[in-house]
Amino acid sequence: MLSNGSKTAGFIDVNGHVYTVYPGNYIGQNYGKIQSITEDLIVLTELVEDSSGNWIYRKAELSLSNNAENSSNDIGNASATNSN
Q1: Which Gene3D superfamilies does this UniProt record tie to the protein (predicted)?
Q2: What is the mean pLDDT of residues 6-35?
């Protein structure tokens, strides 16, 4: 995570490619919209189909880690970097 007071960014490593993401960006297979980025996680709202065939929003969290071995998600490895 990197913050300059008004903007907060997260960095996601997907197969060796690092992407900078911001609140409002979309990531993942379920139209995950980034709601917030903290030092520990990225909070998403995803649009998924429930068992009745209705489309619903659900909250999802992408844990940020400095160690790639701690990541077990489909998006890739996320890392946090402090700007201090």
Answers
A1: 2.30.30.830
A2: 84
